């Protein structure tokens, strides 16, 4: 209606009503409403749209009907019709094409100033008859009056007051509910699985901020979904704040589960589902674009920050609302159903850009994947979601979800089947003791010697394993599994590995025993492994002189077992030559004095807060302290080993930490310096 | 949530809870399209594979039935993606048809032009087809019928073969059921094979596959070529056919290394067909020696690769494959499907056992510990000799003696892989041994003696694995096997499963060296047994004497 008004410009209400392709009474009512809303007003010359309305509507390139306003002094409809009648078939076809595609085109090589008689091409025929009006550049537009004439005097060829029907078919409501619940359960399970996995092996964040295509493929494989499904799952996790950018211990940015995830995974499945749906519903993310290419031909990565649209949320809510109009026992028809829903929404919201339709169909796919809808219809839980009542939706879906089980079926082929979702604690233990072979509504585990060994590594004993298996099994533990547990227990720990700095070998058992038990040798950390072999926790350089002090006469063995004689090489350096240019000496001295003064001040600060040696910290501790300093902008004292191997202390303000290097403002050098992180022996607050 | 017995996993496995009241019904519903992968005691695992789905299509099931069965019996919601995949996979079968054209002979036609375009663009296919007859039809060289089917399967568009079969030279064959009757499942198997034209019948060892073959021949009423694994089994086929059908000894020929007869019914060994001299197969002409109306492949899972190539040229003849398992260690199940035909009949082991046609078996693994000296030798040996060392330990020989003593009076087989070990055992037990070098005559004499009860104990090498009927064996002791071969295990167990008098159960012992590769391989084989539903026990060799028999 408003569109028609804009097309017509200033006009009478009768004219206006006549060009809207709809029931007359309804059109008058609509016009009255526009007048009430003061979007249109009755000017002396007829009804006009409020100035500004046109601009607001022109935010989009064309009106909903695709027609432009009439020319300021339009030709009479009869005259336009006459001109149209003169056209050749090619020109008519061209004109209709322009009309159907936004009323705008480019002329290319067509001449602008021609008379109908001179016109050589279809485009020139149209321009010469002013059926297309040239604009700046080589653009031409189709004036509104021509469009109206082409469309039989109306702004649209189809009536606009008929609500497009939804194509539906009958489908058992119980099936709809079950399908939806199944999908809901699956999506919760998948999110949990994915984030458990990412907690251990986080994918890195791309420089542009997204998730690498390779990582997305991995997710898809891991979760048994296609890549679109995988993209939806990671995007929903992001929308719910279950994942965020974090850093791995080595400082590379990675996608990590948040603390929110821990809270989330502690709640019942139905609430988790409601949370995911809530996040999805109100998010502006557009997972459906992942994998497609943008205008520049660059493909969209999942989790990329630009991957959002202000229309996404509206598209989802609207899609659900319209879907909720489908009564129970009916669902959208296969094939035509989605198209009809998109059309209905296009009618309800005519002024949305074309991408809106895509968003709506994507929203329907996503709703099905998330278990909001099932088999093309909304179950009771989905209706509640459409109404926005998520807690009620969670309560509604609860009875439909598979119940958690706490027992598994152990079988003689060394598999265990959990015939439903396992309780978290049992699941965690089963994961430790067995490998997962198949997932879904049920989980199939397989016990292997490797998986059982994993349990032993985690500190389980054969007895505990057996007790656990007996407690979770509905049936007696099969004998082969018992044997497998025993076999693994028997070989577990038969070879032991430890760490030693040096070993001592002696054929004289008594001498070795004496040495190990000598109280003066206690600091060496000697331990007897066998009557003739002991190990030491101190390195050879320490061990050797100490043993000599204790009266032993040790010989060093090389890696291949041969005896190594230690005769120190005499070391010499080359004498230095060189001469300094005169005059530079004074300048250098002045600079040195300056530097010394700065260094002394820094030294004073270091001194003021020092226990005489910088406390050595573990590398990870040092990194943590440095990060903390970067965040708080504080000054720290670091112990630093310089190029010559000497340990010194520096007072620095850490700025940035990456690639194994710390860049920090060094108070002594009075400048920003780079420090190799592996040379930092300790960090202490200044 | 419904309470069905079936759980459909997203990785396309189906878990069937056996103890569920409606499990039998559900099993019946999913059996046509899902392959039974494992059948241990509580939960049976089926898998949806493209081959399985196509087999179902070939048997006349459509995607809707499959989807309905899944939805109906599933406890939880069925993953949507899986349903879509089922429909899509099943839709692929039959888009292409091999047909007989009245003018152009064999043609490949399609109801779906893009599919035809796609396959014709595949490089492998291009060489096998001739001129394009019209938009939807392309001529096929008759000689490429098999190769084309194989290639189409590989690219995922299996063709349905409607080109029909030649009738072959007629020859009257009837079942002579005066003293026995065909078991219901046997006649069902033969019937469904005949209705399908060509294909494979899967029956457990000891379920009487020979009779299914005989029944199929009676359907065909034509000259028949039977391909079997070895000479002894060829003789058994012959004896069986003479006893159970109207055929006489003169009508049945044997074509093997020793004898080369071509008669209306000819039984040939795989070996003689695949013998190669100077790069050619001299005995291949047997395939064309007569106008065969039916070709029977015994133990189809062992079909050697060259026979596959030959089979590709025999697509115009009816082909019946008989096997206990479609599992091939070499993974060529697809070739069986495309060249011999889809699965036409399948009965799980346990079902037939439950019907009393095969004997139940008690499977026991006996673990021996290697003596210290041998353990050291084992630990320091090359990886490729380890298995031999582990399986031939002397500790096993004592166990064999104990077991034989325990089962004194029951017909016993000792089965092994390594001849030295078998000779040693035979010497110790004072029993005859059958190995590769034993002449066929001698073998048959011994087998007959064993069958009649003259000999109560026989030591056999792997020559006895296949197709030798020793219905009286009650105890089998396996001392070594060919690594982890699962079908070998099936075959050996099969030796025991022929029904016993007095309903006694069979005993199957496997002697395994603890903590060696032997045990690892044994685990693999036993997993197969457990998957077949045979719960096995493990006992220590030391406990054996205490074990009541």
From TrEMBL, chain A:
Pinpoint the Helicase XPB/Ssl2 N-terminal domain residues. Answer: 408-529
Q: Name one Pfam family in it.
A: WYL
Stretches of Low complexity bias are at 609-620
What this protein is called in its record is Helicase conserved C-terminal domain-containing protein
Region described as Disordered: spans on this chain: 100-120, 601-620
InterPro entries xref list: WYL_dom, XPB/Ssl2_N
State if Protein biosynthesis is listed as a keyword: no
Keywords from UniProt, A to Z, are: ATP-binding, Helicase, Hydrolase, Nucleotide-binding
Bias category Polar residues: which stretches? 107-118
List residues of the WYL domain.
Answer: 622-684
The entry lists its GO molecular-function terms as:
helicase activity
UniProtKB/TrEMBL annotation, chain B:
**Enzyme class name:** isomerase
Q: Which residues form the Helicase ATP-binding domain?
A: 190-344
| Any one GO molecular function term | DNA binding
Q: Which SMART domains match?
A: DEXDc, HELICc
Q: Which CDD domains match?
A: SF2_C_XPB
Alphabetically sorted, this entry's keywords are: ATP-binding, Helicase, Hydrolase, Isomerase, Nucleotide-binding
All copies of domain Helicase C-terminal, residue ranges: 398-545
Q: Which domain of life is it from?
A: Bacteria
Record's catalysed reaction(s): ATP + H2O = ADP + phosphate + H(+); Couples ATP hydrolysis with the unwinding of duplex DNA by translocating in the 3'-5' direction
Spell out the SUPFAM superfamilies in the cross-references: P-loop containing nucleoside triphosphate hydrolases
The EC designation for this entry is 5.6.2.4
Q: Which Pfam families match?
A: ERCC3_RAD25_C (PF16203), Helicase_C_3 (PF13625), ResIII (PF04851)
Q: Which Gene3D superfamilies match?
A: P-loop containing nucleotide triphosphate hydrolases
- Report the sequence similarity comment from the record: Belongs to the helicase family. RAD25/XPB subfamily.
* PANTHER family, A to Z: GENERAL TRANSCRIPTION AND DNA REPAIR FACTOR IIH HELICASE SUBUNIT XPB, RAD25/XP-B DNA REPAIR HELICASE
Name of the featured protein: DNA 3'-5' helicase
